[in-house]
Amino acid sequence: MARPAESSHDGRLRGGPGRVVARATARLLGGPGRARVVLLLGAALALNSADTGTLGAAANQLEADLDINHAQLGLLASASSGVGAIASVPLGVLADRTNRVRLLVITTALWAAAMVLGGLAPSYEWLLLSRLLLGAALAAAGPVVVSLIGDFVPPAERAGVLGWILTGELVGAGTGLLVGGEIAAAYSWRYAFFLLAVASAGLSVALWRLLPEPARVGAGWLPANRSASEPGPRPDSGQQPTDRARAAVSARGVVPASDRVLTGDPSGQSLARAAGYLLSIPTNRLLIVASAMGYFFFAGMRTFIVVFAVRHFGISQTALGALVPVIGVVAVTGTVLAGRLTDRALARGHTNVRVVVPAAGFVAAALLFVPGVWFTSVAVALPLIALGAGALAVSNPPLDAARLDIVPGRLWGRAESLRTVLRLAAEATAPATFGWLADQLGGAAGRSSGVGLRNAFLIMLVPLAANGLIMIAARRSYPVDVATAAELDRVPNG
Questions:
Q1: What is the dihedral angle through the alpha carbons of 373, 173, 115, 145, rounded to the nearest 10 degrees?
Q2: Which phi and psi (to 5°) does residue 408 adopt?
Q3: Would you place residue 441 in the very low, low, confident or very high pLDDT band (cuts 50, 70, 90)?
Q4: Mean pLDDT throughout 82-95?
Q5: 471-487 pLDDT, tens per residue?
Q6: Quick one: which of 339, 354, 435, 481 could link to 160 by a disulfide (CB 3.0–4.6 Å)?
Q7: Would the pLDDT of 5 be above 50?
Q8: Contact 156, 410 (CB under 8 A)
């Protein structure tokens, strides 16, 4: 007699509802091995945004409990990002030379400890010091996650897979705003911090037990439906999935920049020499600046969005919590679709699609956010803000895939640490800048009505729109830089 959970011979119902959902998720993400990579690396990215989202959601409670203003609240977010910018440099070197999964496990565990210390803080100064430790722990996430993605995911599918992984940032921010905000409002901001500590500790264990360290420079590529423990084909075996970005520029007859084709293995380069080489890549310089400017706006927005919405629209934090999922769904949809569609466009020979799509996304986001933060009617503003968030999210998967296209594989960790320095420096200055600007523009009356924050958001949309022009400029250098990175990856390791 068949067991109730295994009533079908074809296996479609075998294992009960939980396993059915797990199989469906695995099929959607490209197989069990790919799903494991996506979920674990997405969770690692979610931690940072969940922390900042919780900080923003608990802003009213923190300001009241610790008797601080907008600028001091912004400094809490800025402190962790500033330390992270410094720590990301040596951690990027380690990501190129050591076991990356082990490094991510250790730093994630330290993240949990920092959140516990923050939740126990008896004063603003204590909490600020705990944020410094948090920043050092978070610094490894960027270089390690990007390097692992490059060695787990074939180039032709990276934007699509990155679309799923980057939803971790959005889900983390939304979870921080919703769950963290509800816990802070109902109990205390301290309990919200403790919950994040538990989640971080659990992720550290899951990474250690479930994520293997892949071989480097394509030897560990995990094509769809391959197990995470099954090694992929070596890059020189003739069996690897097609690198569509490099195939597209090759078909156009694009030749590498001869002055940037190194003759030796770059793995052993000093940090200074590697940084000099990475900054000599024209497209990389543009992408670093564009990414930093995008995260600058996002960091300021997620820190103050709850305070702004409650005061500008005149709604309760509970009512806002019911609206946040709408914005989150649009942003997640934009992230996933952008990755998949840009991969398909690249397969059809549209060489520059990974820089054109972010250009359009940045400009569209700025144009949509202007009326979204100006109108005081939630019914009018919410769709515009949701679409703006979706447009901003559209930029990230192709942008991250483009960075992997133009950088040699054995420099991915240091390249990401270089970008992380500027990104975290931007994230470090954004909350404090937004808060200070809001205080200056609004005064006491503007602080209570949200006018100061509204004006700060509008001013900060100018550099966001400028990102579109930066990405358009990258169209000229991107094909040459892809060809140059391909040439360097042919150099034997060692």
A1: -130
A2: -55, 145
A3: confident
A4: 82
A5: 888 888 998 898 888 88
A6: 339
A7: no
A8: no
Fold of 32-218+265-489: Growth Hormone; Chain: A; (1.20.1250)
What is the model's pLDDT at position 241?
46
pLDDT of residue 18: 61
Asked whether 302 and 49 are in contact (CB, 8 A), the reply is yes
Give the model's pLDDT for residue 194: 93
Residue pointed to by tokens 């959005």: 170
Alpha carbon distance 225, 208 (integer Å) = 22
3 pLDDT band, cuts 50/70/90, is very low
**Selection from 229, 198, 194 nearest residue 214 by Cα:** 229
Mean per-residue pLDDT over the chain, rounded = 80
Cβ atoms of residues 303 and 432 within 8 Å = no
Per-residue pLDDT of 49-84, as tens digits, reads 788 778 877 878 888 888 887 778 878 877 787 787
Contacts 24+ apart (CB under 8 A), 315-319: 315/378, 317/57, 317/60, 317/181, 317/185, 318/182, 318/185
Tokens 């490099």 found at: 246
Using CA atoms, how far residue 91 sits from 42, 247, 257, 285, 332, in Å, is 19, 32, 29, 20, 29
Picking from 299, 305, 422, 332, the residue whose alpha carbon sits closest to that of residue 52 is 299
Distance (Å, whole) CA 387 – CA 490 = 42
Distance CA 338, CA 188 (A): 38
Chain position carrying tokens 């830089």: 481
Specify whether the CB–CB gap between 77 and 295 falls below 8 A.
no
Residues near 216 by beta carbon (within 8 Å), at least 6 away in sequence? 151, 409, 410, 493
CA 367 from centroid of its chain's CA atoms = 22
Residue type, 276: G
